[in-house]
């Protein structure tokens, strides 16, 4: 704060505390809050919270949305402007809810830094996770990397924080990875959102293989992208060849051309310095290609089992 202007960062001076101080002084005006492109207004009238608005919400929903802007900045502008009354609870109750939401999001954001990230299932086609409930199982089916956390929450018709809580557990379990770039396919119309349990006797949904292989390829010391280690490149190319051979042994002959093409792409990627990521990408591309080409589900499951075994015994 300087020269009588009330302003600050939500990390350095929590907004809830500042609102409480301004409220006790009986002031009227507006807190302007911003995090990157997001903007919000929170209004007080004679010290009482009366209205909050963001581009997507107003009232309590907007106030709790702002609580998730951990890096937001704010400044207070005294004003007697007339605004609708969308907040009717006492300041203490509202600020308690604000603080609780902020604390929840601070924990969740350790694994889900932004609602604009894209959750991607790390399961291979046909792989069935153990130890999770039907809600999380169905969430895995729609975590294709195409929809962000916020978009999945909108499809589910539920608050983003609730969806993030389920995703948090899946990320901790290594079943979901958070990506910064949209990828994969859109969730299909039959994919259940919000998540539900599979019907009795029905196999769980099979996610598309658009994610990381659980184990890393050959244990070689990491080198800068610009460095060229011929020995390391030979190891990676040999590993890519083993993946291709394993895939051809598991897949019918009509799929071998696809495997050869993907191996060639992986070899080019290794030559370009992409390293182990190119090898992981090859395994994923082979599995995904088999699914998209209509390969039998049992064959895909056998393929994935052999690929996982190959990585496990590197």
Q: Indicate the proportion of strand residues.
A: 5-15%
Number of helices: 10
| Through-space gap between termini | 58 Å
* Helix content, binned percent: 40-55%
Tell me, rounded to a whole number, the average pLDDT.
80
Output the helix-strand order: EHEEEEHEHEHHHEHHHH
Total number of distinct structural domains: 3
Shape: elongated
Largest sheet: 6 strands, antiparallel
Low-confidence stretches: 194-228
The strands making up the biggest β-sheet line up spatially as: 1-6-2-3-4-5
What structural category characterises the helix and strand content? alpha+beta
| Oligomer classification | single chain
Rg of Cα set: 25 Å
What is the β-strand count?
8
Topology overview:
Elements: E1 7-9, H1 15-24, E2 29-35, E3 38-45, E4 48-54, E5 57-58, H2 60-66, E6 73-78, H3 91-108, E7 118-121, H4 134-142, H5 149-156, H6 160-172, E8 176-179, H7 230-250, H8 256-271, H9 276-292, H10 297-312
Antiparallel strand pairs: 1-6, 2-3, 2-6, 3-4, 4-5, 7-8
Helix pairs in contact: 1-3, 2-3, 5-6, 7-8, 7-9, 7-10, 8-9, 9-10
């Amino acid at each position: 704060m300087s020269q009588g202007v009330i302003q600050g960062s939500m990390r350095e001076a929590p907004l809830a505390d500042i609102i409480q101080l301004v409220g006790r002084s009986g002031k009227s005006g507006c807190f302007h809050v911003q995090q990157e492109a997001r903007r919000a207004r929170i209004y007080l009238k004679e010290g009482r919270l009366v209205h909050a608005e963001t581009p997507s919400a107003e009232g309590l929903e907007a106030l709790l949305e702002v609580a998730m802007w951990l890096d937001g900045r704010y400044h207070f502008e005294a004003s007697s402007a007339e605004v609708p009354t969308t907040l009717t609870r006492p300041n203490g109750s509202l600020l308690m809810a604000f603080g609780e939401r902020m604390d929840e999001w601070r924990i969740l954001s350790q694994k889900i830094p932004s609602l604009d990230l894209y959750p991607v299932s790390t399961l291979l086609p046909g792989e069935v996770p153990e130890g999770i409930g039907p809600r999380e199982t169905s969430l895995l089916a729609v975590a294709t990397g195409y929809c962000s956390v916020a978009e999945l929450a909108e499809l589910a018709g539920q608050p983003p924080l609730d969806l993030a809580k389920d995703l948090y557990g899946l990320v901790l379990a290594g079943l979901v990875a958070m990506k910064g770039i949209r990828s994969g396919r859109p969730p299909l119309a039959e994919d259940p959102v919000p998540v539900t349990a599979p019907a009795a006797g029905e196999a769980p949904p099979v996610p598309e293989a658009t994610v990381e292989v659980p184990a890393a390829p050959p244990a070689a010391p990491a080198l800068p992208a610009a460095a060229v280690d011929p020995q390391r490149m030979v190891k990676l190319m040999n590993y890519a060849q083993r993946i291709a051979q394993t895939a051809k042994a598991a897949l019918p002959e009509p799929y071998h051309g696809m495997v050869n093409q993907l191996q060639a792409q992986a070899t080019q990627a290794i030559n370009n310095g992409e390293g182990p990521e190119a090898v992981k990408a090859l395994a994923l591309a082979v599995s995904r290609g088999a699914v998209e080409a209509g390969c039998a589900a049992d064959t895909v499951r056998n393929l994935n089992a052999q690929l996982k075994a190959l990585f496990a015994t590197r």
